[in-house]
Fold Amino acid/amide ABC transporter ATP-binding protein 1, HAAT family.
Amino acid sequence: CDSRACVLETRGLTKSFGGLVAVNAVSLRFLERQTHAIIGPNGAGKSTLVNLLTAHLPPSGGRILCRNTDITGLPAHRMTGLGIGRSYQKTNLFPSFTCFENCRLAAQTRLPTSMRFFRPAARYREINRHAEAALDLCGLSARRDRVAGTMSYGEQRQLEIGMVLASGPEILVLDEPLAGMGREESERMVALLRGLAPHFTIILIEHDMDAVFSLAEVLTVMVNGTLLETGPVEQVRASVAVRDAYLGD
Ligand code: ADP
Ligand code: MG
């Protein structure tokens, strides 16, 4: 029994593309300050699930609840106001802008809810403050004025986490944050995520099993759009079905 509040929940969430059911009646609960990893082979429906959770795709069926409020069908731009921030499987920053400018742009997305009543000068300071704080949290303060596109791939992905943080989320939805990284870059990213984990709900789609096992409390395995298994990470890891279907040991 876990006393932490449920911040995000899916009930029978389903997404079809024509005849293909990419996400099939998925029911999951994500708790406050919990890291929940979702694994599964390519085509399992992980990215589609992320796109549903962040309203980048409309579901074909089922519901999404945020702190017990039904948010099914809300537009994507409302998700930031609900505290749901996401990164993408491919890099999504503005390469000709500096790290600070990228974080500033992301910080502006908090405007509608939390800064509407600020006067322009105060609002400007607030945005800058959030951008600086996000740079600090993602470990890039020393790169503040570097043009993003001139940094290493690993630093660019770090900056993307910073941009998510700048938007003021409670829930971080991260689609393969280690994709394409070398060992050293992966280790830096895992350390960054471990530092964030006590403060945020993290929904982590990731192929790197070492990273998953070192970060996740809860592990969900998806195959062909459905949940094969979900539960505490050690329990799921030990499951025969999971080993046969996915882990291959
Ligand atoms: P994963 O992220 O687990 O690799 P995806 O969610 O990307 O899986 O894809 C799940 C299935 O849905 C795949 O068969 C994929 O081809 C299909 N799919 C994903 N997005 C679309 C789309 N926009 N249109 C049609 N089919 C899609
Ligand atoms: Mg994917």
